[in-house]
Input
Amino acid sequence: MGRHIHVIGIGAGDPGYVTVQAVEALNDTQVFFAMDKGEQKSDLVALRREICTRFIREPGYRFVELPDPKRSSGGDYRDAVSEWHAARTRIWATAIATELGPDGVGAFLAWGDPSLYDSTLRILDAVAAQVDFTFDVIPGITAIQALTARHRIPLNDVGEPVLITTGRQLRSRGLSGAAVVMLDADCTFAACGADTRIWWGAYLGTGDELLVAGTVGEVGQRIVALRAEARARHGWIMDTYLLRAV
Ligand SMILES: C[S@@+](CC[C@H](N)C(=O)[O-])C[C@H]1O[C@@H](n2cnc3c(N)ncnc32)[C@H](O)[C@@H]1O
Output
């Protein structure tokens, strides 16, 4: 048998996004490893705990909080990320080796789906070179599916591609066709042409959800103001948007 880890996609906000496969994996888990993200995102930690309380039938599991090393902000972005991953790898390797028995089952809960802008799988691959265990992946509903479902729109135009990108990349490369933009702290859509269509969503799937759609010219400044106000009120924000150039 040996140690086993489930990487469970828990959906991007609504506990109702948790799949039947995820519920089975949650119920198979003895130890949940959780990143300590600090005070600001305590709402997200609370949601993870709510998912466990709601879907796990036998309360025999426990949480192990793992410190999340700080990512250095200056210098090269990729170097900073790779140092940060190496620090996480060391912490996770120690935790898996010490907290899981020889046949123990652990889990990492990944926000949305573990394959999308999430480092869990990359880090676990590196940990597997240091500690003996197997792992599997349970897919989850991403912020992209939550966004398109809440706006009731198809993601792509007929036969057309869609780029999934970040605010940083949109700023440096510009927009052509359609793009889903994630991880954008700077409202980069505001630099797109006024006719560009935008479907924006924040805190998708939660009780605080915000949705705005229109052209950048019509609704861009409203989104900028709404975003700043919501961020100040909650202390954090997660937003995603689909852009379609005309
Ligand atoms: C580190 S990525 C994780 C993405 C996640 N793995 C997924 O499948 O959606 C975090 C980004 O996802 C987007 N995001 C995640 N959850 C969201 C939500 N509930 N509402 C809006 N955007 C969300 C935001 O763009 C945020 O900056």
Notes: The CA atoms of residues 92 and 241 lie 32 Å apart. The longest helix spans residues 77-99. The mean pLDDT is 93. Residues 12-13, 111-113, 116-118, 142-143, 146, 182-183, 201-205, 238-240 surround S-adenosylmethionine (CB under 6 Å).
